[in-house]
Amino acid sequence: MANILLFFFFCLAANDYRVDGTTLPISTTEEDEIKRHLNLINKPPIRSFQTEQGYIVDCIDIHKQPAFDHPFLKNHKLQRKPTFLERRKHAFYYVTNKTLDFVLEKFSCPKGYVPIRRTSKDDLINEIKTTSFAHHHLAQSFPGNHLVAMIMDNREDGYMGVNGHINVYQPKVRKYQMSIAQIAVQNGESNGINTILFGWQVSPQIYHNKLTHVFVLWTSDSFRTTGCYNMMCPGFIQIDPHFTIGLPIINLSTYEGPQFEISLSISQDSQTKNWWLVAQNRHIGYFPAALFSNLSTANRVGWGGRVSGVMKGQSPPMGSGHFPDGDLTHACFIRKISYVVSDGSTEEPVQDVPKLGGDNPQCYGLKYFGFLDPQNRFTLQFGGPGGSCAI
């Protein structure tokens, strides 16, 4: 049922989307499908609260959250914590710059319940249009989308995770634009791409504001019929009782000023094969292995940035809006880059040579410094002002 609805909505987005941001009215049948999908993902809460930014967050029974309505997860056994928690302590680096605050740390759900941001009709329509046209594959760009990335894809036994610290900015984008900083795992090619992307995102169309939000994006078939941002379709299983995907980050870095960063990991549990999201050493939740058609391991991992949306001939800024120049207070960085290999150990790109790529050097750049120093270790910088960026 979930996949059928997603296919319907992707068709709706293709029929309803306009480059200038205007849309055509939707039919009564489409309205009914939207209501059914909202009922699928918005479960009855035991408690709700509203954040300062106006979002409603519901406390949902951990065993009755939307993921368990996915047809592949009907008999899924909940995993409370990853088995690598004790064995892989060295894999997750602790924050040494300014500490980030998350808005939900002042709220709490009762034991046995998890916080999930409530999805509105507008949220759903805007997210589906954005996902349908963004095609956020790790190593690809499309008209109106620009990517800079460092990619590792030269291990015969594949990858089981990716780690990095990303400093957080709030690039100025317009309503129908988006700017992202991310880490990623991916497997497959063409229409069979399975991927998970995790990072921060500014997208007024998705979030109804210009704030920076923690996001995740996934698909098991190149977004043909599966996948979405955050929890707008059944898939991701929330575990952490205080932090939930899709909410804004309070503290932001400033050019030549204080730098606030978030430590992120996408890491596979070697026993269950589930893919866990870790932020600030908090095990937020996971994507069950059953969701994916081809992600038993990843054939590539990556770090970088992406933007989408051309408004009046201008593409949005990426990162801090400045080109990388070696000064970590100027452009967006990802430091302490590492990845998890097949035996569960964490490695750094000491000997392997990463691939560096960017499609518009006049608008965006990426510099990889290798081993920068003992504090930052393997580090890259990326970003740029955007502007007139023809592919």
Automatic annotation (TrEMBL):
Keywords (A to Z) from UniProt: Signal
Residues making up the signal peptide according to the UniProt record: 1-21
Key word Signal present: yes
Positions in coiled-coil regions: none
Domain of life according to the entry: Eukaryota
Presence of the UniProt keyword Cell membrane in the record: no
Protein name (database record): Uncharacterized protein LOC110278780
Limits of the Neprosin PEP catalytic domain: 141-390
Pfam family, one: Neprosin
